[in-house]
Hints:
Structural class of chain A: alpha+beta
Shape of chain A: globular
Oligomer: homodimer
Largest sheet of chain A: 9 strands, antiparallel
Amino acid sequence: MIHQDAYPVEEWALRETRLDLGLLAQAESLFALSNGHLGLRGNLDEGEPYGAPGTYLNSFHELRSLPYAEAGYGYPEDGQSIVNVTNGKLIRVLIDDEPFDVRYGDLHDHQRWLDLRTGVLYRSADWTSPSGARIRLRSRRIVSLTQRSIAAIRLEIEPVDANVQVVVQSELVANEDQPARSGDPRVAAQLQAPLVAEDAFVHDLRVTLLHATRRSGLRMAAAMDHEVDGPPGTTSRVEAGGDLGRVTVVAHLDPGERLRLTKYLAYGWSARRSPAAVRDQVEAALTAARSGGWKGLLAEQADALANFWDRADVQVDGDPELQQAVRFALFQVHCASTRAERRPVPAKGLTGTGYDGHCFWDTETFLLPVLTYTTPHAAADELRWRESCLPQARDRAANLGLRGAAFPWRTITGAECSAYWPGGTAAFHINADIADAVVRYIKATGDEEFARTTGLAILVETARLWSCLGHHDNDGAFRIDGVTGPDEYSAVADNNVFTNLMAQHNLRAAAATAERHGHAAAELGVTAAEIAAWWWAADTVLIPFDDELGVHPQAENFTRHDRLDFTTLPDDPYPLLLHVPYFDLYRKQVVKQADLVLAMHLRGHAFDPDQKRRNFDYYEELTVRDSSLSAATQAVLAAEVGHLDLALDYAAEAALMDLRDLGHNTRDGLHLASLAGTWLALVAGFGGLRDHGEHLAFAPRLPSGLRGLGFSLLYRGARLRVEIGPEAAAYTVLDEERGIELTHHGEVLYVGPKQTVTRQIPVIAEQPTPRQPPGRAPQRRTAR
Amino acid sequence: MIHQDAYPVEEWALRETRLDLGLLAQAESLFALSNGHLGLRGNLDEGEPYGAPGTYLNSFHELRSLPYAEAGYGYPEDGQSIVNVTNGKLIRVLIDDEPFDVRYGDLHDHQRWLDLRTGVLYRSADWTSPSGARIRLRSRRIVSLTQRSIAAIRLEIEPVDANVQVVVQSELVANEDQPARSGDPRVAAQLQAPLVAEDAFVHDLRVTLLHATRRSGLRMAAAMDHEVDGPPGTTSRVEAGGDLGRVTVVAHLDPGERLRLTKYLAYGWSARRSPAAVRDQVEAALTAARSGGWKGLLAEQADALANFWDRADVQVDGDPELQQAVRFALFQVHCASTRAERRPVPAKGLTGTGYDGHCFWDTETFLLPVLTYTTPHAAADELRWRESCLPQARDRAANLGLRGAAFPWRTITGAECSAYWPGGTAAFHINADIADAVVRYIKATGDEEFARTTGLAILVETARLWSCLGHHDNDGAFRIDGVTGPDEYSAVADNNVFTNLMAQHNLRAAAATAERHGHAAAELGVTAAEIAAWWWAADTVLIPFDDELGVHPQAENFTRHDRLDFTTLPDDPYPLLLHVPYFDLYRKQVVKQADLVLAMHLRGHAFDPDQKRRNFDYYEELTVRDSSLSAATQAVLAAEVGHLDLALDYAAEAALMDLRDLGHNTRDGLHLASLAGTWLALVAGFGGLRDHGEHLAFAPRLPSGLRGLGFSLLYRGARLRVEIGPEAAAYTVLDEERGIELTHHGEVLYVGPKQTVTRQIPVIAEQPTPRQPPGRAPQRRTAR
């Protein structure tokens, strides 16, 4: 846990006011910078101490054999792990021959802050060395959002009260030591010395190192160049070879004098290009970056972010902490994806090695709704990445004896890396989740060219999978047996409601899109009979219901299962997976994360309001939220069924997952889905945004803890601004030409160009708050 | 596959008439000798060529870490593997300095035969060396059934037509090379050089080697002593150290002269005793064996087997191959268990390293019925071994959050070694299977002292497990959700009928036995309330039934699942587990091995005759028999419901599993459960033996392919002889004092001491033969 005083609330920054070595690893994740291609953990400039050093290039990975004590047909042979690549952010500093190391000497003051408007990570330190030399050190660091290969650091050192000799070693270091692996299976496999040195190049103060991986056959280059600004007599030397590139600057500084080092970094990798080509690519990027210079990079960065905030900012009135959290969340979601460009956005972005750097369904189900309405090009790119993985997904399906495409549960390259099939391969819902993201993107953008190409290709192949995974029973019902839904504390069950409803949506979307783009569909071999089969399957899909209890069982028989006996467990038994075997979790009514409740969000039309209320309360008692994917969805549904204050509790839990380290694993990287979930909790929760009907739908309603909520959306090329107050909501179309048809609590409204329409919010009686499992009531946001 | 001509049919022997190097590994399993403590594969005396060398001591194992790519709570950390211990059967022979090796020179004649009445493995070879020296070599080998540490070999060599120099190296060799591991997960993990040499001792022609394992901390000794009988001038030398002990005999033989070497072997191991103690123990056994000498050992062996055959022989009239097979089966089952003495009987006995030498539920469900009625002391010993594992089973249950005892799915020492929980830990039925074996043993022997001690301890702890694994739902039904039944192509299902019926039996037996032995039960903490809960759970256990189809689903929803589409599979897709992923097998109506059908055998009273017929035919279409545990059970039920010829087909399949290598893995060791199943198919199938009612029940009925069937049983200390003809059956009690009450096709009969009672067999109309999955109709035994 991180207490609030570590990061005081600010509107537009995340500020750390003192250095707590116990929270170093968490801070490295929080202060990570990324653009979707390159990611730097927020390590101290001087490299040590660290929680985990981290420099990542999207999709640059190594393979490792997956061990099985008892193997089985169709088990993936190789796993993939994101590689900690050559560290270019390292700048060691010696003061009078003593290393600048915050663990020694006296640290009078240490601050770091991430400016969410400019995208710059600031640091300032006031330090006296063990031998008594006092300096001030300032650094600024960016990972460029406009030049995707580029990061840059500016470091300034000045003595406080006496002359000092300063030696600065600006380095590129490959194969850094990694901290020992934890016993927690979720922590990434460590790869010791994954990089093989291929070549090193030096020119002036520029160093380029080329490395390759052993098994995956990938090649990368890291290059650094420098501008040195110091008093007369300042000297620089350069050296490079193997795993080390180093520029050493020596300066003698009197009080009032300053040494300033500007370090430009460029990274690139390729699976195919020659060493020379990869080298040239990064050196070109470096030269381009230097031509604009430090100020140019900063200006571009601020412009890009201003543009982003202009279209995507969410204003929260009445809860400054939540205001800060949602901006931090939007910043990180944006930075993780904006330049990913047909590469995956991993569950932890490029902020740590958690989950081996793999991408899961989180991306489509939690990130892509946010991106679709704020940065649609990034949503499209992500889906184009999935499309590029279709050949592997088709192979996987064929290998499993299925038709169509079976997208991987976890992957970097598109190949399945899950070594535990009940929780991986069997979770076929990922295919419908991807299809759902396709449908949402098409609907929100009206991009029919995308629909005809990428969209149709994905929809058709996933629909084929479903029509093969399910079958019509003797009564004609379309059953999908023996699969795993979102709740990872259940597995291999029959007719999981979420899966069946999402598959229905997928089948219908494939059929409708294929009918709309008949020629393109025919090229994919789609026949009228196939389309008819999709419609039929969708129309007859089995949705189990427990008449006795009046609720939907998460899957067939679920509501007949025993409940977990918490009295036999330790006092704080969460996450349960560390105390209870899967076999027991699976057969009990205990839910790790929203599953049926997520179905009620994404496929809300399939439930009537009474069912939603009863279902929500029923599952609330069972859901332990051992996954960070849960709170946001619970917020959305809590708001819908009238538990508004509970919804705010959950929104805050999603929002503070990383800022307060609620899951105790922020050290391994940020929880991007939970960050995206913050937006969902606010916009889909209190804004009531739904996009599964004919119109973009809103049903705004604020909890007692908020005075106002404002957000913007991009919809079919127009910007829509929504301002919600306690009693009314205002919808403004900012576009000059286009209007938007939407619904407000079911009433259809047309909001014309540059027009604002205001509507009252119907009153809803706050419902009796349901109960959560022992010890799992969310922290209350407002007294009640 | 082994064709019939490799092993011609003989009544009392298994004979190999020529050496087929392609079948060497299979022959090593078939000619394996064991007494339950010590097992020797049927390797050639001279060691090479081999399929796999093998010398095993019951429970002498090494540990190895089980790897998990994705670990989980409660997964066992260590696996156990049976160790190929010091090879003492090795006797290398040089003829004029050329090694006797059947791959070189000319092998004019080579025969091996296992005499099932004397327990001696014979070999004779007529061979001309590459340089033209012709010899006759004869050997005999036994593993003593009366002196459990002892094996002995007598080797005789004589020249055929000219003087030869013969050098014989009789050896003890530790850490032999093993053949490369196959990719099949069922094949054992190879352990390279598992033994660490501790000491070596020499006295005259006696050598003793002491070794220990690295991780499991077990110590073993192997000792050999020799009698040499050759012409004058024959010399002997001895050497020993490290992994090698060797006695070298040199003789010059003229035609008509003979060198005869008698080698005595003794083996022992301990987890606790000192090196000296273990050494002394084997040397004492060796001295004892030598005191009776070779003839003494042979005479004891023949006596022991005569006694066995007298009480256990099964006579099959009309099918000589089946006659041979059932005797081979009984011989191997007897030898695997008679001296196991509170050690497990592994699935492959001590005949190979298949399944790592682990013991499964096969032992209780397939072997113990045979042992109970033929060698009851071995059945009791096996259950006492299970009792000795109760502490580990209690720990395992506690670790899994359960009460009572959870016996391991696979083990050597009693600790769970299954690394795949859906097919291991979740298969809780093993606990009821053990309880069922306890009940059967008590009923068949009337051994109330056993019931009060071992029996009660096992029944109580397993009943506690069931009462915790199941729960009463809102309607009061006792449900056991999320467990795996016998069919390994289904897993983690709700209310598996087999499991629920066996648990019911277990709960009732525990309750009844606790009531009968109130004082002993009280000492185990059993209360009246606990007993009442067991009765209640047993009386309300949920047995799903599909009213629409009129059959029992194997587990809830099973009959609603899709069927496997065989048209998409390769032509010979068996075993399916090599072509279809578990996820797909689990969710389809495809059955690896009798599950519901086994329930109808062991808990026959729970089904009416109509249900049995319909169920049998329904599951027959789904059952692919990819497990060797299936055919025997299908034989039993086929006979009961009137498919008598089909029953004979299945009886033959069970009987010939190893003799014809039907599963293509006899090389890894014999299928003891299938061998035991041969007896079950005949005695429970055509004899109709059932033991779950008040009386021992028979319902004899022969298939058209048999003219007669005779078998003996021990029941409550009396011998019962059953002779079945096409029209009548005769029951004879051979005891002088006790009579037996039994039923014949439902009619209660009392057969007094030394009395024979004959009854007609009611005619049953042969039913239309049901269908099997594509390509899985059993080989037809009789034309029809």
